[in-house]
Amino acid sequence: MPRGDGRLNHDLFPGEKGPQDACGVFGVWAPGEEVAKLTYFGLYALQHRGTESAGIAVSNGSQILVFKDMGLVSQVFDETTLGSLRGHMAVGHARYSTTGSSVWENAQPTFRATATGSIALGHNGNLTNTGELSRLVAEQGPDRGELNYPYQGRIEASSDTDLLTSLLAGSPDLSLEQTAMQVLPEVKGAFSLVFMDETTLYAARDPQGIRPLVLGRLERGWVVASETAALDIVGASFIREIEPGELIAVDEHGLRTRRFAEAKPKGCVFEYVYLARPDTTIAGRGVYASRVEMGRRLAQEYPVDADLVMPTPESGTPAAIGYAEQSGIPYGNGLVKNSYVGRTFIQPSQTIRQLGIRLKLNPLREVIQGKRLVVVDDSIVRGNTQRALVRMLREAGAAEVHVRISSPPVKWPCFFGIDFATRAELIANGLSVDEIAKSLGADSLAYISLDAMVEATTIPKDRLCRACFDGEYPIELPDPERLGKHLLEGIEQSVRTDVDGVQALLGGGGAEDALRRP
């Protein structure tokens, strides 16, 4: 039976969803430790990056065991499951789909048999030459050419990660490390990877370093993770970021590093705005400090006479604090957030659906009534949520509602791991700021300037990807018809034709039996 995706807010406004996070990846090499539990807590710290599915693969040195399912990390795993995943090394993944549908077959880590063993892989990001890679997989021949291993009666995997795993498993005469050094230079787009065979943990980052990936040290091992917050939760000390274009390997001989491409840093600025946890550090800059500074600069650029600065919980909180500090206007909470309603699997009735945002936020009337409000949020995509919020605040008695956004207008889609709306759906693409303000029902609306936002990160502008704001993509994109979340589902049939309909082969039957089916 199909299961809910854990995001009731997606159903509150038909067709409305905010910028969905990339994915969270975690890997650990630590003999003598309970690596499955370390990975569980690491993924728990990264849950904000993906809530559709979760999985952990563990190696005991001779066999890889994979367990994955749809849902949150805490729903997929329990003590019994984690206790059965024994070994010295693990990789884990929390997914939000940016290529391929949100189905069990696309959950990660992906698994493949190789000529000498097997591979499990987790991917954060999105590849832009997926069509080309699918042809390369097909050319590997009937033993390796199918996109994935099929299950009777199920939709097969259709993710760029599945293609990448097939390519890494497709060189019988080379080791996994040697294959990676050949394959990764051919992969275009954003990828922060953790993967392993039976004996070695690997991590790799695309030459632009668009998505974060960090290295940490345990007393008896090593950890790689999407964010430093995940290192903190498992007690690992931060060592450094994985460099763009770098492949690292960890085994019984220690840690070694190789470079498969020249570094051309273009870290995603939206990680600072929204994606990363506020307690994470990226490129030496704390995300929380960046967001507070964005609020300060927003107040400098667009002041307003008001009685109260309030955030949209919780995404706008640091920027609202900065705005209040800079403007001298008191900071306060005008909204109470229900932290749990967004995790229910119960489908809302039409009556409840009409309540919309009230399921997640409820106004404090005694705080709001008669006040001129500055409402700070991190971004506007389609505008439906902000429109409902402004209406709710007015109904609660607000005298004025001035909306301030701590990022510039989102006018371009992301092809590197964030699932924005299409360009036609982005409200800022078709309307002026004044027209958007009128559409929202706000007394005024202002966005921080691009330069001020970038300066708040302290990272040089030419080392950041700002494409969703200015349309300057750091990686050349293919023709529009070769892009899209469901691209592989569209070309699946042609790939099957290329390989003459041969069924995929998955070695080591024990691993297949271990995969949990919802």
Automatic annotation (TrEMBL):
Gene3D superfamilies registered for this protein in UniProt: 3.40.50.2020, Glutamine Phosphoribosylpyrophosphate, subunit 1, domain 1
UniProt: [4Fe-4S] cluster binding residues: 268, 414, 465, 468
Entry keywords, A to Z: 4Fe-4S, Glutamine amidotransferase, Glycosyltransferase, Iron, Iron-sulfur, Magnesium, Metal-binding, Purine biosynthesis, Transferase
Pathway named in the protein's UniProt entry: Purine metabolism; IMP biosynthesis via de novo pathway; N(1)-(5-phospho-D-ribosyl)glycinamide from 5-phospho-alpha-D-ribose 1-diphosphate: step 1/2
NCBIfam families: purF
GO molecular function, one term: magnesium ion binding
Key word 4Fe-4S present: yes
Full protein name: Amidophosphoribosyltransferase
Domain of life: Bacteria
Positions of Mg(2+) binding: 315, 377-378
Active site, renumbered: 23
GO biological-process terms attached to the record: 'de novo' IMP biosynthetic process; purine nucleobase biosynthetic process
Catalyses which reaction(s): 5-phospho-beta-D-ribosylamine + L-glutamate + diphosphate = 5-phospho-alpha-D-ribose 1-diphosphate + L-glutamine + H2O
SUPFAM superfamilies: N-terminal nucleophile aminohydrolases (Ntn hydrolases) (SSF56235), PRTase-like (SSF53271)
Magnesium found in the keyword field: yes
Database matches in CDD domains: GPATase_N (cd00715), PRTases_typeI (cd06223)
PROSITE patterns in UniProt: GATASE_TYPE_2
Domain Glutamine amidotransferase type-2: 23-253
Function comment: Catalyzes the formation of phosphoribosylamine from phosphoribosylpyrophosphate (PRPP) and glutamine.
